Inverse folding.
């Protein structure tokens, strides 16, 4: 299942590269929101009420990922 999501995400990133460049990378949040929504339609027990909550979930996932990356890099250099 993960490989399917990964393949779809990579294909979408390549196909939407011009839009992503025009929006200075902000369109990637829309793609991540779409992937969260898509996952909620496939995975049983995981539901999202619509696109806006999926977009907010993608934003929260991005924030946690960025914070974790920052903490790991900070620990490496200490």
């Amino acid at each position: 299942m993960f490989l399917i999501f990964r393949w779809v995400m990579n294909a979408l990133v390549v196909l939407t590269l011009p839009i992503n460049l025009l929006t200075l990378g902000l369109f990637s949040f829309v793609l991540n929101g779409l992937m969260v929504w898509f996952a909620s339609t496939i995975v049983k027990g995981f539901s999202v009420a619509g696109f806006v909550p999926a977009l907010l979930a993608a934003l929260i996932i991005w924030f946690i990922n960025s914070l974790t990356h920052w903490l790991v890099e900070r620990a490496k250099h200490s």
